[in-house]
Amino acid sequence: MHVLLVEDDVILSDGIARALTSQGMAVDILNNGNDVEIALQRNSVSMMILDIGLPGIDGFEVVRRLRRRGNQIPVLLLTARDALQDRVHGLELGADDYLVKPFATPELIARVKALIRRSSPNPLELHIGGLSLDTFSKRARVNGSNLELSVREWAVLEYLMHQSSRVVSKQQIIDAILPWGEELTLNAVEVYVSRIRLKITDANIAIRTIRGFGYMLELKAA
Ligand code: CA
Questions:
Q1: Ligand 1 centroid to 69 CA: how many Å?
Q2: CATH number for the domain that contains residue 21
């Protein structure tokens, strides 16, 4: 799950990003409204947290432009004060929800998850062979037994499950699971995949190596 966070207060955006990352989400941060459209083209973003008071075009204008172009990405507005007309204006323009600063982190996380769940084009439960992933509660099971995965292993496996029976490159995996600015080597992806393979040996699933390119996750032939 990718969240785009548009907030010019660096301390606040760092805090929000850390909270969401700890929930297994990838977070891209922008400090102004002008770059939102480019950011949305660069990554598949699940939802956006949008401050109203921004340098450049403000949060209201960002929402107005997105909706005018038919972009329905879920938007959670952050308002600096509990001004009724701000909230009403934001919702009328097409924002989905709002939070008044200062807010409690657990409430933010709950609202972000609720917006993603309501709009998710992907199934919340992924099943292949004996493996199932609940992408909302972040629980993985092999043949009904809980599977322990690190945050990165989870992200790699979830991506491979979404792309099952398709060949994906190591770079595609990196792009899908990392926020901008963070780096991961191709070797690290290999390490995650080998760890995942060991953990799902009983699931009747193969993660095939496509030499010099990447991987394909598929059901093992009977
Ligand atoms: Ca601001």
A1: 24
A2: 3.40.50.2300
What the block records as the tokens of 175 is: 């792009």
Q: Are residues 110 and 154 in the same domain?
A: no
- Ligand 1 centroid – CA 22 distance (Å): 24
For residue 142, the CA-to-ligand 1 centroid distance in Å is 45
Predicted confidence pLDDT, tens digits, the chain (222 residues):
889 999 999 999 999 999 999 998 999 999 999 999 989 887 778 899 999 999 989 999 999 999 998 888 999 999 887 778 888 889 889 999 999 999 999 999 999 988 987 876 656 788 899 999 988 788 999 999 999 999 899 999 999 998 888 889 999 899 888 876 678 899 999 999 999 999 999 999 999 998 888 999 998 876
Residue burial 120-144, b: 16+ Cβ < 10 Å; e: rest = eeeeeebebbbbbbebeeeebebee
CA 10–ligand 1 middle distance (angstroms): 10
Written as six digits, the tokens of 2 are 């990718």
Beta bridge pairs of residue 133: 126, 140
CA of 6 to the centre of ligand 1 (A): 9
Same domain, 7 and 112: yes
Query: From the CA of 198, how far away is ligand 1's center (Å)?
Result: 46
Domain boundary pick from 81, 103, 119: 119
